[in-house]
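for the writeup, i need someone to sanity check this before i put it in the appendix. the sequnce is what the collaborator sent (i think, or maybe the updated version? ugh). structure was predicted straight from it, no edits. if anything looks off just tell me and ill rerun, i have time this weekend
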Amino acid sequence: MQALVNFFPLGNADTARLDLADGRKILIDFAAMRCDDDEDDQRCDLPATLRRDLHKGGRDYFDAVCITHTDTDHCKGFGDFFWLDHAALYQGKGRVKIRELWVPAAAILEENLKDDARLVRAEARYRLRQGKGIRVFSRPERLKAWMEAEGIDFESRKHLIVDAGKLVPGYTLTGPEKVEFFVHCPFGWRQDENTVVDRNEDSIVMQATFVEGGQKTRLLLASDVNYETLAAIVQVSRKHGNEDRLAWDLMKLPHHCSYKSLGPERGSNETVPDPDVKWLFEDQRQPGSDIISPSWPIPVKGSKADDDVQPPHRQAANYHRRITVAHDGEFIVTMEYPSKSDPKPFAYKITAFGFALALAAPMVAGTAAAASPRAG
């Protein structure tokens, strides 16, 4: 079985499904954004789409669900779709189970959360107290004080915490799953020899490396981080000699093609990236690499949408399109593929010759009708 990376048209919202070579399924974020009462809403019916895929595979669970951060566009519908262990109210027929929940430290520590974000926190805290079915992405020291205040034995839960610069346990390139996950964020920024300042505790950034037939395909999952965070990730990676962990063949664009993930100024026609971010987007991308923007269609110059402060931003898209053409890749907007009038889910198949883009996300891993592969 070959791995698949699936994307869904959800407007300005994120969900990706990874179908691994060993049959495991990992969901990166969950954003059920479609308005069922609006027949003109072109966004994907995410719950129905995911349930069909699970049913075809004869399962009622995901092996892992990663909520990269608790903004609405990354967890909307969480309490309606999933079986939650912490309360009987969220259990029952038709709910999808989560074998392992991945969350950033903020999903445990943050107060004043509402709606689905609050439910993510409640479920994560329950699982951490139980000591199973959870991975928390953070420096161990960041959680220690909270756990001690809650009466949770830190040493017995420490193995559930994944620090930046580490691999997520349970996934290897040599195992049947043929994938590994390297964690970039959340991370601690060393201010001096004795002081580490916690940064960006609210978002998970990872590089997923797949291997098939000796060929590596690298997917960078950049969550919704801004250019300052991306620049800091670059600086930390270079300091520790981990530049290869920022190489990529597929990039899930951060923050729905916002200029703020490139640089401080929007620009009139094209956003100028921060130097470290420029290195990430231009020098670390591999020949034939693709960028996926999980967003609404890119605005036309002079249109009402072009004046909107919210992404996607035309100027950022112009930068990404230009450099993508220069690297023989594609820039794909989820709400524009295969067309603006009829966007559909789509998938990349991981092959021994690189990745291959399929027209629509298949219901079962390994059944995609893919285009010609492109090596990474």
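The longest strand covers residues 285-293. The CA atoms of residues 42 and 273 lie 32 Å apart.
thx in advance!!
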